[in-house]
Structure formats: C-alpha cells, structure tokens
Amino acid sequence: MKILVTGATGFLGGSVVERLLAHGERDIRVIARSGSRRDRIELAASRYPEARIEYVPANLASRTDAIGAVADVDVVYHLAASMKGAPADMFLNTVVATKYLLEAFGAGRKGRLVLVSSFSVYGVAKLPRGSVVDEGTPLETHPEMRDVYGQAKLRQDQLCRESVGRFIKELVTLRPGVIYGEGGGALSARVGLNLFGLYLALGGKNLLPLSFVENCAEAIVIAGQAATAAGEVYNVLDDDLPTCDAYLVDYKRHVESLRSIPVPYPVLVTLSRGLERYHRWSKGQLPAVFTPYKVATTWGGNRFDNGKIKKLGWRQLVSTQEGMRRTFDWFGRCA
Amino acid sequence: MSSDMGYRGPWGWSTSIWVAAPSVGVLSGEPIMTLKVALVGCGKIADGHVEEIQKMPERARIVGVCDREFLMAEQLATRYGILGKYDDYGRMLEKEHPDVVHITTPPESHLLLARMAIDAGCHVFVEKPLALNLRDAEALLAYATDAGKKLTIGYTYLFDPPALRMRELLVSGIIGEVVHVDSWFGYSLTGPFGTAILADMDHWVRKMPGQLFQNNIDHLLNKLVEFMDDEDPEIQATAWRRRTNARDDVRDEMPDELRLTFVGKRTSAHGTFTSHARPAAHFVRVYGDKNIAHVDYVSRTVTLEPGPTLPSAIGRLVPAFGQAWSFLEEAGRNSAAFARGDFQFFSGLNRLIAMFYDSIIDGTPLPISTRDILRVSRWMDRIFAQIAERGRR
C-alpha cells in the first residue's frame, strides 16, 4: 500500500511518518519542498531500512504538482496547512491546495483520505462556559467571526466531507487540540498572548487541551489504518491535562522567566468589547485581535472529550508529565 | 511634477459632492450616487482594496468579487460580507453591471481583463504594474481613452500622508527647486510571498521581463516622475544577485539587488531596490536648492536636514537638537492622527480610490496622469532591457 503524507516536513509530519513506519507501513511518499528539513524523517527511516521513503518536491497549490503527488497512492495523510501569513495566502495553501489534492486523488485511485483538522472548526462560542466538546458538537456557523486559521480549517474540513464518493472513497477526520513537543510552538494562544513584552495570561484555570506530538501522530495513524474509522471524526488530546496557569508556571520555571499578568475572563470579555468598538470606530486602525466571539471560542473554558479515539484503541504513548518535561527541556536548550 | 496630475488644493484631500448618478440613493435628503464596484483577483492585495472601498459607503459599494479559483472569491466574499462571488469574470460583468472594476490579478492578465471591463462599460483601477511592457500599457491606456473610460493604477504611496506633507513643503517653497532625488525601496524575500517566489520557477513574478523588480519598482519610479519632467532621461541600471545559492539550480539566478541612476535636464535621481539591507526601509530624499527633505514611508515622518547656522563647534552641536525637534513634531502629528483614528495602514490607497471615484462621479481630474503612468512604464522597459543586455554579456 502506498501512502502519501502532505506536510511531512512540518512539526507533526515527522512524527506521523515515524508512527506509520512503526505500524508497519513500508511505502511512503512525502511531500518535501526544496529547502525543507528532512532530518526527522531520515532519522525515523534509518530504523526501518527496508522501508521505501520517496520525496516529492510538490507545491499543492499547483494542480500539476498535486496530480504527480497522488499518482498510485492508496491513502493520503493530509497534514499540510498554512499556519500564518496573509488571509489569501492561508486560504490558498490550506483550502485551495486541499481542493487540488482531492481532485487529483479523485482522478486516480479515489482511496482513503486521513485529514488532520482542528478543534478550531467547532462552533463553541455560544456554548456555556466549561461545556464538553465532543465529535457531535456542531461546527462553526459564523466563520467570518473567527480568525483566518479557523476559517481556513473549517472550509478545508467541509471540502473534504463534500468530496466523499466524488473524489475520495473514505474520509477519516482527526481534530487535534494543541499539538506540542520538541520543535513545536512554545505557548499556545489558549495560554495567553505576548503584548509588547508583557505576557497576558488569558487561559487561567481552563484545561489546556494538549496533544503531545507523538501521541497525536499515533492517533492519526491508528485512525488512518482502522477500517471502522471510515466516515468518522475523532478528537485528539491527551489525558491528565494541566490548566493553562499550571502550564505557564512550569514554562516559566523551566524555560524562561516571563513578565506575565493574569487577565480574568470577565475582564477579557470587557476588554474585547472595548477593542471591538474601537476597531469599528477607527475603521480598523488596530486589528480586532480580541472580540467577544473570539474570546468565547478560545478562552471560554471548553473541555474536549477524547473517549472516541480511545475506543478505537489509541493509547497515550508519552504521559503529559513526560511530554511537558521533554518539551520544556528542548525549549530551555534553545533559549 | 507633471502639470496634469489631478492633485487639488494644497495637495490635500478633496471631499467634493457630486450630483450625476448611475446608481442613486438618498443621503441627508440629497440624491447621491454610489458606484457599483467589482473586483477581480482575490489574492493578498484584494483585502486592502475591499477594506478601503467599504470605508466609503457614500461613494461606492462592492457588488461582486471574482477569482478563477472560486474558493478564493468565496473566502474574500465571506470575510467582507460581499454577496456576489464568481469564478467567471464575464458572467460577473454581465450580471452585476459594475461601474468600476478593480483588477488585482497578476500583471500578465491586466490588459485582457481591463479591456473586457472597458467593453462592459466600466472604469478600471489596475494594480501595479499596469502591464508587462510599455507597448501593452500604451494599448490599454489608449483603449480606455477611446472608450471614454477612466483608468488609474495602484501608486498608493503617492497619496500616503508623508507624500502629501512633502508636497506641502514643495509648494511652500521650503525645499526650493529640486536638484536631486533618492528613492529607496527595501524588500524582504524571507516573507511568505518572497519565499514562494524563490521556491517556484513558475511563479508569475518570475515570468515578467523584470521579474522581482517589475513587481516592486513602480513604487520606486513613480516617486521620481514627480520630480523629473523628462520623457527619456539618461538611465543606468545595475542588477545582481546578492543572496547565496539555496537550491543550486536555475531558481537561484533571479537578481535581487538593483541600483539606478537617472540624469535629466534639471534633476537627477538615484533609485535603490534592495532585498538585503535591513531594516527594509522605504523613503525618498528630496535635495532642493534650499533644503533637503527626508520622507519616510515606514515611520510616516517628513523631516528637513538641518544645516549649520552657527559657527565653529556650536554649529555642529545645534543641528541635532533641531532634528530631534522635527522628529518630535512628527511623532506628535502622527499621535494626533492615531487618536482621531486617521492613521490607517492603507491611507494612500484610500485616498487614491476616493480621488479616482470622485473623478468618475464629478469629473475631477484623474489622481495620476496618463503621462506619468507611461513614463514609469517606459523607464521600466529601458531598465529591464539594460539588465537583460548585461546578462547576455
């Protein structure tokens, strides 16, 4: 069976390739644009000398490249997404690239697509604070009120669901929380934001829905290989989660001393109302980084449920305590 | 500055009210016109156009956006609440009957799309560069003129607050007659757009005769044509690649540094496009026979170079205080604008669009003259020809 991994040279991609190899896959094509790092994939591949790893320098925003990338492929693990940049660039590299990938796949074997989506596609703004979000929670109905990353991931998620039967035979969707680990981002926006050198601790007592990168990759591969996962959606997050405050305290203890100030949720909501009003009055002189809607979605304190992926047989490979230790050690060495 | 540029008053902002109207509404009891605007090309710069047009509901409303990739039109329409979204340009023109079309696609499509818009009875706002070469630029401008339609180009920095203040200084005579101009445009190849250009041999920027330079030096040259009245000044262009090989293939060959020298009858100029000097500065220095002005488009400051007015060491000591005071004044001016909510990122684009719409509605002069657009285009052709000639050697 030939597998294609998009976004393979990214933070999560290397771990997914490693877990695919660990679960017996031996014919893997990875999209690796020139200049991208291959060291993690090569390290993983070195432990499986019989495996065939094929590098394809494709740009998925090109239809021609997409066709070449999916040739003879049975399963696509679609991780590629744009994390930053101008809104148009993010849509191009996340949504349009996914469309071209789907169309190319549909012209060939029409196999299984394993999509790495995001928690950001859920419509949680109107849920009561602390509500549990599971795979049955409705998706966002006001994408225009979310940040661009959330909008793009939602449209990508919808596009893949619309393609079942037309371009792909089966879809498996995984929606991870905050993926962290060595080489990842330091502090999720769910914990807080750095404002001109002062760190605003916004998450407070909310549970931080962490997913250690190896645990996340394990979940993706288990779902990707399970016949029963066709058409299913799985939330991916670890157990024994810390609160945002506890995570920040540990980060400060092990990585760097940050000047931080806690911002209670009611204060944050009030500030966001003020900023939204100012944004309107000033005709966008300052971006509406905080709006009451965005605050409710990001810092509303929702809890996420991982029972469904566990039922599929997923087990956490690395404990949260160990994952945080390894992550902070790595950041400490980089600091 | 050429005489037919449409600036009015002391280089200020015109708020003229119009009467004639393709689309008529009512504001304060007076019949008013709002232009129906459509946009084609839903990439990065389209956001700026849409945001600024939506800030002038008394002048215009956006009726449709189009991109050959429908998802791109959809994302723009969703984010800005626009009803019409299309992947068929002809259909958008036919269904929405816009008065104005903004063309924000890659330059190789400008000529075709602008002609189609003009054929559909529209005025056109074309992003820079206007076309791939002078021949196409001339053809397009002639096409618009023959059809009685107006055309302008996205020379936004000409309408940014520091450019307006610099012109006030010129008009007041403080700078005097302009002897020389330095136009500097810093660029980063490490951002998402630059990275995409470097990685992709098929990127549209690489397909233009002037490649990276052609997508940027409108902003460098359009500031010079203000000061040089010559049609064809002496031009010397030197281009080279400064970055080290990243891929060891043909993608590494694109030049990324450009130095230009212009000599006209009364005024000379230097132009610098650099992808490596940091910070990526963007300024014009205007050397008059009375004063030298430094116009900074990043910090939005306009300051005069202080000359020694006192003898000996004191003469070296005092000017820095004068300069510090100038910057303090500029900081105060900018802070006041910020407090008024008038310190917008796309100030120049807003001003340019509004002046263009005014020219359509009440017949005021175009914000940018046809002559200046063509001179920029002609100079670009000559620059790229020199670069190509030296490359062949």
What descriptors fit this protein?
heterodimer; A: Rossmann fold; 7-stranded parallel β-sheet; 3-stranded mixed β-sheet; 11 helices; 14 strands; B: 393 residues; alpha/beta; Rossmann fold; 2 domains; 7-stranded mixed β-sheet; 13 helices; 39% helix; 21% strand; globular
Describe the structure.
The complex is a heterodimer of chains A (335) and B (393). Chain A has 335 residues and is an alpha/beta fold. Chain A has one domain: Rossmann fold (3-Layer(aba) Sandwich). In chain A, 40% of the residues lie in helices and 16% in strands. Chain A is built from eleven helices and 14 strands. Chain A has a seven-stranded parallel β-sheet, sandwiched between helices. The longest helix of chain A has 21 residues. The N and C termini of chain A lie far apart (42 Å). The mean pLDDT of chain A is 94. With 393 residues, chain B is of the alpha/beta class. Chain B folds into two domains: 120 residues, NAD(P)-binding Rossmann-like Domain (Rossmann fold); 204 residues, Dihydrodipicolinate Reductase, domain 2. Helices cover 39% and strands 21% of the residues of chain B. Chain B contains 13 helices and 15 strands. In chain B, the strands form three sheets. Chain B has a seven-stranded mixed β-sheet with strand order 10-11-12-9-13-14-15. In chain B, strands 5-4-3-6-7-8 form a six-stranded parallel β-sheet, with helices on both faces. Chain B has a two-stranded antiparallel ribbon with strand order 1-2. The radius of gyration of chain B is 22 Å and the shape is globular. The two termini of chain B are 37 Å apart. In chain B, 44% of the residues are buried. The N terminus of chain B is likely disordered. Classes of the chains: A alpha/beta (335), B alpha/beta (393). Chains A and B meet through helix 4 and helix 5 of A and helix 1, helix 2 and helix 7 of B.
